[in-house]
Amino acid sequence: MFPNLEAEMARKKLTKLDIQKKIGLSQSTFYCKSNGKSEFTLLEAQEIQSKFFPECTLDYLFERKEKIKCY
After folding, report:
1. What gap in Å lies between CA 41 and CA 58, rounded to an integer?
2. Is the dihedral of CA 49, 53, 59, 64 positive or negative?
3. Per-residue pLDDT tens for 11-43?
4. Of 5, 48, 50, 56, which is least surrounded by CB within 10 A?
5. What is the pLDDT at residue 70?
C-alpha cells in the first residue's frame, strides 16, 4: 500500500518486524496499517520517519499506491 516506504525499507534491509518493535505496535496492528487496512496516526508516521528514514519526507514515505479520485 505504501510502495515508497517498502522501497526504503528494502534499501536499508529493514523488516516490518524491525519497525513495529521500535515504535511499539503489535505485529498484527503494524501489518494492518502498512497494508492499508487501517491508518497510521500522524505520530506513528512521524516516528517511523524520524527513527528510520530522516532523509525522506512524510509525503514521500506514505504516498499511497492508489490515488483517491474525486468527482
Report:
1. 12
2. negative
3. 999 999 999 999 999 999 999 998 888 999 999
4. 50
5. 46
Break the chain down into helix, strand, coil percent, rounded to 5. 55, 0, 45
| Cell (9 digits) for 26 | 503489535
Inter-CA distances, 2 with 39, 58, 65, Å: 11, 11, 6
Give how far Cα 18 sits from Cα of 43, 52, 65, 68, Å: 18, 10, 22, 30
Structural contact between residues 10 and 19, judged by C-beta atoms closer than 8 angstroms: no
CA-based torsion, 29, 30, 31, 33: positive or negative? positive
The distance from CA 65 to its chain's CA centroid, rounded to whole angstroms, is 12
- Count CB neighbours of 22 within 10 A: 13
